[in-house]
């Protein structure tokens, strides 16, 4: 199952299954001398499950306590691999026993069974559970701390849930101060309430909803990205698709660019305070796979949660006949709010790697006194 690592200089390896003993991450290549502690990771982990409106979520409310097992000494990274892990305590595997041979439509049960010959851990979605994003979030904590030393800011938030969309583009400060005040993780609090109501309505009907998460990256210098195959947008998109349920990614003007004319879509260059910038940002801060110095704007489309209590058609893989399934157990009627910190983290991991590769971050951050 090779494929659980990302990055070339700042390499994050994710491990663990939904109902296994632990979920964790190993970061190899983090520069020495970065101030880092459990408090940093904990702050990010605590943002994973919104405590405001618990009825919107799965009922698997795990108080994850991060443990740093290596790579940090006297409050600073040492340059050695950093291993961070949490225990899985809230596993309720019996929920999955009855549907072991009935692949949930739109979940990975069928493809994983084919690929791993039935040996994969099916409990709670195993390696394909949204819970694996805990590892991404913990790795992202290290990446975000590193990026913050170089003033790079990564902020994700919910842009829409189902048909409820934010009308206006929020300010950077609005995203920073408001996003985690709502369970929907939407910085427009009035819109967040409508989103939350729509999730509850869907839940009552045995249904689920998807949505869009947007991420704004500011202060990334121009010149980050390694075309051709490691173009910045290529690697960011790859990282985003590591988050389960992400089914579409766009940058800047995205798919709307396809209907625009060149004179509308081209971002005119301008000199501003002695620096080159662009008047508009339909390119979303990336040109030719290299950062332009403009804010990077990324959107990820998230599909509705596969596991719903409404009856669906499937197959019985033991009897090889058509069957029906109603999924019970603890499932989020909408995974978008929980995906917000995971998407932010996946992006931060990619940016930390590319900042090192482009020479903007050295291997050692200063000298110990
Ligand atoms: C944070 C998070 C939580 C998730 N929770 C659930 C869940 O409770 N039930 C479910 O069926 N899918 C859940 N998913 C989605 C599935 O893991 C995902 O749809 C599945 O692995 C198939 O992968 P794909 O949608 O990327 O193709 C969650 C995803 C994320 C990001």
Summarize the structure.
The protein is 25% helix and 22% strand. The protein is α+β, with helices and mostly antiparallel strands. The strands form six sheets. A five-stranded antiparallel sheet has the order 1-2-3-7-4. The chain has a five-stranded antiparallel sheet with strand order 9-8-10-16-11. The protein has a two-stranded antiparallel sheet with strand order 5-6.
Structure description:
With 369 residues, this protein is α+β, with helices and mostly antiparallel strands. The chain has 9 helices and 18 strands. It has helices at residues 38-45, 94-97, 109-115, 133-149, 172-178, 189-204, 232-240, 262-265, 336-357; strands at 5-6, 11-15, 22-28, 67-70, 72-73, 76-77, 82-87, 153-161, 164-165, 211-218, 246-251, 269-272, 275-278, 286-287, 290-291, 296-302, 312-316, 321-325. Flavin mononucleotide (FMN) is lined by residues 58, 107-108, 125, 128-130, 133, 243-245, 303, 305-307, 331-332, 335, 338-339, 342. Flavin mononucleotide binds at residues 58, 107-108, 125, 128-130, 133, 243-245, 303, 305-307, 331-332, 335, 338-339, 342.
Biggest beta sheet attributes = 5 strands, antiparallel
Tell me the overall shape.
globular
- How many strand elements? 18
Largest sheet strand order: 1-2-3-7-4
């Amino acid at each position: 199952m090779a494929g659980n690592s990302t990055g070339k200089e700042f390499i994050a390896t994710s491990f663990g299954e939904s109902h296994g003993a632990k979920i964790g991450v190993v970061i190899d290549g983090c520069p020495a001398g970065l101030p880092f502690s459990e408090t940093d990771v904990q702050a990010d982990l605590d943002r994973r499950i919104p405590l405001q409106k618990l009825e919107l979520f799965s009922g698997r409310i795990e108080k994850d306590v991060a443990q740093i097992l290596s790579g940090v000494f006297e409050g600073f990274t040492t340059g050695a691999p950093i291993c961070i892990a949490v225990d899985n305590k809230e596993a309720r595997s019996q929920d999955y026993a009855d549907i072991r041979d009935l692949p949930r439509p739109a979940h990975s049960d069928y493809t994983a069974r084919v690929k791993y010959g039935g040996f994969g851990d099916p409990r709670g979605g195993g390696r394909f559970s949204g819970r694996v994003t805990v590892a991404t979030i913990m790795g992202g904590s290290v990446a975000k701390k590193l990026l913050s030393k170089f003033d790079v800011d990564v902020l994700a938030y919910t842009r829409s849930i189902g048909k409820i969309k934010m009308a206006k583009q929020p300010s950077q400060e609005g995203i920073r101060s408001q996003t985690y005040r709502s369970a929907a993780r939407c910085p427009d609090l009035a819109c967040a309430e409508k989103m939350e109501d729509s999730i509850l309505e869907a839940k009552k009907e045995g249904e689920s909803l998807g949505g869009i998460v947007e991420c704004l990256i500011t202060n990334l210098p121009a010149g980050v990205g390694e075309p051709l195959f490691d173009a910045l947008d290529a690697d960011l998109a790859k990282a985003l698709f590591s988050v389960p349920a992400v089914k579409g990614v766009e940058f800047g003007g995205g798919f709307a660019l396809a209907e625009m004319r060149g004179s509308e879509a081209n971002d005119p260059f301008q000199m501003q305070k002695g620096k080159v910038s662009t008047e508009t940002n339909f390119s979303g801060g990336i040109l030719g796979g290299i950062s332009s110095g403009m804010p990077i704007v990324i959107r990820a489309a998230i599909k509705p949660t596969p596991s719903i209590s409404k009856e669906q058609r499937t197959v019985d893989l033991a009897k090889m006949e058509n069957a029906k399934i109603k999924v019970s157990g603890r499932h989020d009627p909408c995974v978008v709010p929980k995906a917000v910190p995971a998407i932010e983290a996946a992006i931060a991991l990619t940016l930390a790697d590319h900042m090192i590769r482009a020479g903007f971050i050295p291997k050692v951050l200063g000298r110990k006194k």
